[in-house]
């Protein structure tokens, strides 16, 4: 049986795993869409695969792997691309991945809206997203990609989140390095698919809110 990725297009975590799959270019795999809002996700079978009930999950025969970035590490290692074995190169990639995984600004912005808990987004949540972008800009001061001069899985992880933020209508004028990186990513397999998922998420959030998802800056003229 081909390996299966349990996926949901709206989920940035899930899109990290899918972007990695598209880039490592496995011969055969299946993408199974799981509706994270539907009962389907809560079946006993899905709970056996992932007790936390989340996407993504990668299943290859009896090997079950949860956590998007662990999936990315595994897939990249299996083809010996995008995750170099050089100790320091790998350590920098891991550092970037852990930072992305533990920075909650995107999920804190998205989840309360999707759960219907808020109709307006508090300003500190918006500020946290801007702080996140500022840090990403600083990561790109010395290199074209997030962990050196070559594309790595760190870039797949950030691309899922950055496309999500871009789809909200956030201007990247203040983050020129990040903007150039994003444009460079357009050549990566899976870029458009990831962008489409980000746009669908943005659309869903906009419907649930009583205000624009991201207000445009007033022109000074
Ligand atoms: N740490 C996990 C986070 C996964 C995650 O938060 N998945 C969300 C979608 S972005 C999900 O499945 N939410 C549904 C739920 O928690 O019920 C990873 O990176 O794989």
Round the Cα radius of gyration to an integer and report it. Answer: 18 Å
Bound molecules: glutathione
Helix content: 40-55%
Number of strands: 4
Whole-number mean pLDDT: 94
In the sheet with the most strands, the strands line up as: 2-1-3-4
Could you walk me through the main structural features you see in this protein, from its secondary elements to its overall organization?
By secondary structure, the protein is of the alpha+beta class. Helices cover 53% and strands 7% of the residues. It is built from 9 helices and 4 strands, in the order E-H-E-H-E-E-H-H-H-H-H-H-H. The chain has a 4-stranded mixed sheet, covered by helices on one side. The longest helix is centred in the last third of the chain and has 18 residues, at 191-208. The N and C termini lie far apart (61 Å). Bound molecules: glutathione.
List keywords for this structure.
alpha+beta; globular; 53% helix; 221 residues; 7% strand; binds glutathione; 9 helices; four-stranded mixed sheet
Write the layout of secondary structure elements.
Blueprint (H helix, E strand, L loop, with lengths): L3 E4 L4 H13 L5 E4 L10 H6 L7 E4 L2 E4 L1 H12 L7 H16 L2 H10 L8 H17 L13 H15 L8 H10 L5 H18 L13
Parallel strand pairs: 1-2
Antiparallel strand pairs: 1-3, 3-4
Helix pairs in contact: 1-3, 1-7, 1-9, 4-7, 5-6, 7-9
The structure holds glutathione.
Task: Describe what is shown at a glance.
By secondary structure, the protein is α+β, with helices and mostly antiparallel strands. The protein is about 55% helix and about 5% strand. The structure holds glutathione.
């Amino acid at each position: 049986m081909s390996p299966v990725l349990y996926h949901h297009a709206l989920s940035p975590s899930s899109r990290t795993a899918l972007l990695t799959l598209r880039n490592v270019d496995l011969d055969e795999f299946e993408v199974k869409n799981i509706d994270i809002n539907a009962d389907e996700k809560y079946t006993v079978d899905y709970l056996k695969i992932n007790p936390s009930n989340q996407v993504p999950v990668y299943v290859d025969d009896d090997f079950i792997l949860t956590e998007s970035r662990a999936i990315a590490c595994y897939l990249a290692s299996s083809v010996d691309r995008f995750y170099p074995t050089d100790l320091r190169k790998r350590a920098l990639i891991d550092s970037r991945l852990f930072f992305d995984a533990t920075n909650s600004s995107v999920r804190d912005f998205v989840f309360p809206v999707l759960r219907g808990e808020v109709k307006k987004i508090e300003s500190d949540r918006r500020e946290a997203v801007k702080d996140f972008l500022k840090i990403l800009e600083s990561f790109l001061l010395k290199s074209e990609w997030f962990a050196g001069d070559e594309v790595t899985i760190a870039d797949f992880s950030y691309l899922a989140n950055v496309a999500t933020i871009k789809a909200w209508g956030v201007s990247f004028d203040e983050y020129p390095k990040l903007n150039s990186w994003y444009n460079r990513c357009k050549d990566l397999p899976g870029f458009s698919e990831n962008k489409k998922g980000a746009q669908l998420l943005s659309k869903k959030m906009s419907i649930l809110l009583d205000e624009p998802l991201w207000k445009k800056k007033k022109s000074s003229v």
